[in-house]
Design brief:
alpha/beta; Rossmann fold; Udp-n-acetylmuramoylalanyl-d-glutamate--2,6- Diaminopimelate Ligase, Chain: A, domain 1; about 20% strand
């Protein structure tokens, strides 16, 4: 009998696809199901023990404690070299057999196989492995995670996805819905979609903590020098703020923001002191300007990391904003929060029915 499988994909990058795979897989494991995982196509080359794998696949393997090596869980990784070879080739490419063989290995001894799609429905065509073809070949139902952007785009994203996938569709999860849009989504969007025969298994509210970076993330992104001793690299940064105002204005703003990173010049001792009086995770000091020893000592007493970066404030902000809200759930607290969110807002029994799993 062919193994049950679900193909989790998304309309665009950073929609919560990997988090959804993990939360679903861990719930299934907790309920006694043997769960396998595969990411058929990847655009994220990641070296593991001398092999090219996928970064998400490696992370999921570790979290689910899977036996197969990471590179077998990501059979087709599109590297720059792969792309150039593909474009030069005069021969047709057929990688589907490789994907099918990998899926059979990943499914061996399992009750259900979770397949993680690419970052968007556009991915995979260059390798001859678009989402619809892979899902159809592997006999998978498709669950699509759609990130809320605005009222019109939400509907267009969902309807455009359905137009592409049609009978392969299992249903949708709508993710990161801000509080002000919740009523619109729950009372208008979901009923309208259900009337058209499109299943919405859950609507997940936006949670700022899930978009947070860690201090370690900031160090890597900014290539920062850490000036404080024994920093907590796992401490979460939930908001960003720029200290380029008067002390009075800064204090007023700082008191309204918890677990923040304050970006300011190394010579702004007044702003740094104001930040340390409030809920601050780290100070990011720009221009390679070292703070006074008093600031470093006080930051260490309060457990606040100080990061020194060479760029100016605008360059630093741009570097952080490119990754803010887009990090994977490599932090245990973030993964637990997302699992709790799924538990509260997803109709798992209805989803299981779509997968023909027993109640």
């Amino acid at each position: 009998m062919k193994i049950k499988s679900i193909y989790v994909t998304s309309v665009e990058r950073y929609s919560g696809k990997t988090a959804t795979c993990l939360a679903l897989a861990r719930r299934l494991q907790a309920e006694g199901y043997r769960v396998g995982y595969l990411k058929p196509v990847s655009l994220q080359p990641f070296m593991v023990s001398g092999h090219i794998a996928d970064e998400d696949a490696h992370f999921v393997k570790e979290m689910l404690k899977l036996d197969l090596p990471s590179w077998e869980l990501s059979p087709v990784v599109i590297t720059p070299e792969f792309l150039r070879e593909r474009l030069r080739s005069h021969e047709p490419i057929n990688l589907m057999d490789k994907v099918v063989a990998a899926s059979e290995r990943a499914a061996m001894g399992k009750d259900i196989l979770l397949l993680e799609g690419g970052a968007s429905l556009r991915e995979g065509y260059v390798a001859g492995l678009p989402t619809a073809l892979v899902a159809e070949t592997l006999g998978s139902n498709v669950l699509v995670v759609v990130k809320y952007r605005d009222e019109v785009r939400l509907m267009d994203d969902i309807l455009a996805t359905y137009d592409r996938l049609r009978n392969l569709m299992c249903g949708f999860l709508i993710n990161r819905v801000p509080a002000e849009a919740s009523q619109y989504v729950q009372e208008l969007v979901v009923p309208a979609l259900e009337r058209q025969g499109l299943s919405v298994f859950g609507v997940l509210p936006e949670q700022r903590g899930l978009e947070a970076l860690t201090v370690g993330d900031l160090v890597r992104v900014l290539d920062a020098q850490v000036l404080t001793r024994s920093p907590n690299y796992q401490a979460l940064v939930e908001t960003l703020t720029v200290g380029a105002m008067t002390v009075e204005s800064a204090l007023s703003r700082f008191r309204q923001q918890a677990n923040k990173a304050v970006i300011t010049g190394g010579d702004r001792t007044d702003i740094q002191l104001a930040a340390l009086e409030t809920s601050t995770t780290c100070l990011v000091l720009t221009g390679n300007l070292h703070p006074s020893p008093l600031i470093v000592k006080q930051a260490e007493e309060f457990g606040v990391a100080i990061l020194l970066v060479p760029g100016n404030t605008m360059e630093t902000i741009e570097s952080i904003e490119r990754v803010f809200g887009k990090t994977r759930l490599g932090h245990a607290d973030k993964l637990q929060k997302f699992e709790q969110l799924m538990s509260e807002h997803v109709d798992y029994q209805r989803l299981y029915h779509c997968l023909s799993l027993e109640d």
